[in-house]
Amino acid sequence: MLTQEDLRITSLGPRKLLSPLRHLREGPRSFVPDDRRVMYHIEYCGDEIVNPLGFEKAGPREQLYFDPAECRAAIVTCGGLCPGLNNIIRNLYYKLHGDYGVPTILGIRNGYLGLNPELGREPFPLTDSVVEQIHHQGGTILGTSRGPQDARVMVDYLESLGVNLFFPIGGDGTQKGAHLIAQEIERRGLKIAVVGVPKTIDNDIKFCYRSFGYLSAVSEAETVIDRAHVEAKSTPRGVGLVKLMGREAGFIAAAATIASGEVNFTLIPEAPFSLDELLPAIGRRLDKRDHAVIVVAEGAGQDLIDHEQGRDKSGNRKLGDIGPFLKQAITDHFNEVGKPAAVKYFDPSYYIRSVQANAADSLLCEMFARCAAHAALAGKTDLFIGLWNNRPVHVPLRVSVGQVKRMEPARDLWSAVLATTGQEKW
Ligand SMILES: Nc1ncnc2c1ncn2[C@@H]1O[C@H](COP(=O)(O)OP(=O)(O)OP(=O)(O)O)[C@@H](O)[C@H]1O
Ligand SMILES: O=P(O)(O)OC[C@H]1O[C@](O)(CO)[C@@H](O)[C@@H]1O
């Protein structure tokens, strides 16, 4: 259970400088339509908390800490690609520059690498023409990277750039890095707000019910499963085998299974399985219906594969390739029992995460970016924008760091998978 102390949001100081309403009336934004000013008024939500855990609700504050006209913002995108990164960049730009009037928004290139001036390329200023069309593209116009950088070096650089609003967009690794940066800023007594936006197609960030990009990736995955189903049905004893991303959590595999409705076996990292049980179960399905569709998350069945243990640059564990392993195991097994199966293997891999955001994710991105801008200008720091009880909330980074979200086999989503596939367990 989280305590009040856990949930306390760090603030750079008392908020009294400017009210957004006053600022919008007086500010130099001739292109802000009048109705946006009204929207601010309606949107204003104060420091209300959202139960049951007690997160503070995200959104505009009555008073700002920073004078937007004197601010400099920087955005960085880190880790793997995710649909919606460009939407976040674009919406942050429009909110900060277009609505609040922050004069300069810098794009940091290639993740935290771009905050090390010895190694990275120089940041560039975002402009209307730079961001105008980017939400139609997958990826991130800023580039990304994995691998650690020294928080002291990054803070030195942010300070030298004159940045006081900093937005790290990334997964749990990025948010851990953001927390170290925020702590270093606090140690030095600097006035730089650090407000993260959680990103991952894997949807495994704690206190964020749905991360942006997840549903776009699921949609793409569903298309591949449907193709695998067509292949499997078109040949005697056909097996469509689809490997999907999901290093530690099976949310993509589970949701794509349910969306497709054509999967017979779903295998996820959170539910260990044995070949002794799985292969005969596939056999029973083939005897009955002559085809089977299997979805496996890349982190599933790792205990079955002999592979080199190791870590990537960011410290994420390296996985053995479960797809070809399963393909071989299924092929060998049915050859051995004298009833060969035709296994068609699909590995959509990066394909599902390099697409542009779908409508649902575009909406989420707009909300996350808007809330991040409000929080930073209000002087809130060392937090990310989460989604809790269907509301955007402020999640202190010290609370989220080290916490992970996993599918719980006893919960609804997994029950829905079992009901959809008809598989007995796993
Ligand atoms: N514990 C940590 N402390 C400081 N920085 C970290 C930490 N873990 C990861 N990072 C840094 O954060 C950045 C992104 O981390 P990582 O590559 O793990 O991606 P991620 O943000 O977790 O996203 P994804 O979901 O794509 O894996 C990298 O530059 C990495 O070095
Ligand atoms: O090959 P990369 O870029 O390290 O990314 C792979 C990983 O990224 C993720 O999609 C998370 O973003 C994992 O599911 C996957 O293992």
TrEMBL record:
Q: What does this protein do?
A: Catalyzes the phosphorylation of D-fructose 6-phosphate, the first committing step of glycolysis. Uses inorganic phosphate (PPi) as phosphoryl donor instead of ATP like common ATP-dependent phosphofructokinases (ATP-PFKs), which renders the reaction reversible, and can thus function both in glycolysis and gluconeogenesis. Consistently, PPi-PFK can replace the enzymes of both the forward (ATP-PFK) and reverse (fructose-bisphosphatase (FBPase)) reactions.
Q: Which UniProt keywords apply?
A: ATP-binding, Glycolysis, Kinase, Magnesium, Metal-binding, Nucleotide-binding, Transferase
GO terms, biological process: fructose 6-phosphate metabolic process
* GO cellular component, as recorded: cytoplasm
Q: Which reaction does it catalyse?
A: beta-D-fructose 6-phosphate + ATP = beta-D-fructose 1,6-bisphosphate + ADP + H(+); beta-D-fructose 6-phosphate + diphosphate = beta-D-fructose 1,6-bisphosphate + phosphate + H(+)
Required co-factor? Mg(2+)
* Pfam families, sorted: PFK
Q: Where is the Phosphofructokinase domain?
A: 72-374
Cite the Gene3D superfamilies for this sequence: 3.40.50.450
Per the record, the domain of life is Bacteria
Q: Which InterPro entries match?
A: ATP_PFK (IPR022953), PFKA (IPR050929), Phosphofructokinase_dom (IPR000023), PKF_sf (IPR035966), PyroP-dep_PFK_TP0108 (IPR012004)
Q: What is this protein called?
A: 6-phosphofructokinase
For this protein, what is the EC number? 2.7.1.11
The family annotation for this protein states:
Belongs to the phosphofructokinase type A (PFKA) family.
At the top of the EC hierarchy, this enzyme's class is transferase
**Gene expressing this chain:** pfkA_2
Q: Which organism is it from?
A: Posidoniimonas polymericola
Query: Which GO MF terms does the UniProt record name?
Result: 6-phosphofructokinase activity; ATP binding; diphosphate-fructose-6-phosphate 1-phosphotransferase activity; metal ion binding
Q: So which residues are the signal peptide here?
A: none
